[in-house]
From TrEMBL:
Keywords per UniProt: Antioxidant, Oxidoreductase, Peroxidase, Redox-active center
Annotated Thioredoxin domain residues: 2-157
Source species of the chain: Rheinheimera marina
Family to which the UniProt record says this protein belongs: Belongs to the peroxiredoxin family. Prx5 subfamily.
Name of this protein: Glutathione-dependent peroxiredoxin
Swiss-Prot/TrEMBL catalytic activity: a hydroperoxide + 2 glutathione = an alcohol + glutathione disulfide + H2O
Main function: Thiol-specific peroxidase that catalyzes the reduction of hydrogen peroxide and organic hydroperoxides to water and alcohols, respectively. Plays a role in cell protection against oxidative stress by detoxifying peroxides.
Keyword Oxidoreductase appears in the UniProt entry: yes
Source taxonomy: Bacteria, Pseudomonadati, Pseudomonadota, Gammaproteobacteria, Chromatiales
InterPro entries given in the database record: PRX5-like, Redoxin, Thioredoxin-like_sf, Thioredoxin_domain
Amino acid sequence: MIQLGEQLPEVQFQRLTDNGVVTQTTAELFKGEKVVLFAVPGAFTPTCSAAHLPGVVELQQKFYDKGVDRIICLSVNDAYVMDAWGKAHNAGDILMLADGAGKFSQAIGLAADTGDFGGLRSRRYAMLVDDGVVKQLQVDEPKQFEVSKAEVMLALL
């Protein structure tokens, strides 16, 4: 698993924009930025939709007030699903990012095989990344939602 002080691996992500699906790299998303990245096992899944994303949406301005440049929500889903999920929850400025093949999740050691539920997914976590370097990392145990909550991350800033 990635550790505090380590650089994020260089991978490609997708997101849906008004001009269609675009691919962006780790460097493009994190270089020179203070970013709160939170990852969920799946868009439109119960805890992710009822608590995790809504908690970040509710507190997003407080993150920006504390000097965060960008908030990213990541899941091993496609860009269309992530965009629809963000719109369904009025995610505002939160960047809804697809790790479609799970390459990022695997590269940082936070992928999970959920078997018949959905196959390769991300574990639930939140991290603070400054210029591509991990400064805080909060990883929930499987089927838990405690340490990656928006309130916990906000308190760590």
